[in-house]
Amino acid sequence: MKQQHKALTKAEEDIMQVLWKLDKAFIKEIVDAMPQPQPHYNTVSTIIKILVEKGIVGFETFGKANRYYPLVRKDEYSKNTMSQFVKKYFEGSYSNMFSFFAKEEDISVKELEDLLKELKNNKK
């Protein structure tokens, strides 16, 4: 059964991007890996606690410090997020989404052809 994850805020996603890159990290390591201007340690700590409550992040304890790690793979989260995006904005149709981007000229004919090739290869 496909697990649905709670939607993440922009700040939560920013921290998850860093955590996916680091794999396991203490709060200070997460803060240090964030782009400038870096958020305050307490801000990151609070957001990490929310991610733990949402079941997106787990932790292991070393004395008084916790090391955090993702419980959801980046590709799994991306797939779920894209699926929700397509449902919300394009009536669940990837065809409608690609048509939209083609009309807006955000995607070229070559890019669409490359996507079709990739889809055909994945179906095999």
List keywords for this structure.
Penicillinase repressor fold; Arc Repressor Mutant, subunit A; BlaI/MecI/CopY family transcriptional regulator; 124 residues; two-stranded antiparallel ribbon; 10% strand; mainly alpha; WH-like_DNA-bd_sf; transcription; BlaI_family; 6 helices
- CATH architectural arrangement of the largest domain: Orthogonal Bundle
- The CATH topology of the largest domain is given as Arc Repressor Mutant, subunit A
| C-alpha end-to-end distance | 23 Å
CATH class of the largest domain: Mainly Alpha
**Structure summary, number of beta strands:** 2
Assess the beta-strand content as a share of residues.
5-15%
CATH homologous superfamily of the largest domain, by name?
Winged helix-like DNA-binding domain superfamily/Winged helix DNA-binding domain
Helix/strand order, N-terminal first: HHHEEHHH
What does the average pLDDT come to?
86
Low-confidence stretches: none
Radius of gyration equals 18 Å
Biggest pleated-sheet summary: 2 strands, antiparallel
Strand order of the largest sheet: 1-2
Estimate percent helicity: 55-70%
Overall 3D form: elongated
Question: Would you tell me the structural class of the helices and strands?
Answer: mainly alpha
Keywords: DNA-binding, Transcription, Transcription regulation
Family: Belongs to the BlaI transcriptional regulatory family.
InterPro entries: BlaI_family (IPR005650), WH-like_DNA-bd_sf (IPR036388), WH_DNA-bd_sf (IPR036390)
Pfam family, one: Penicillinase_R
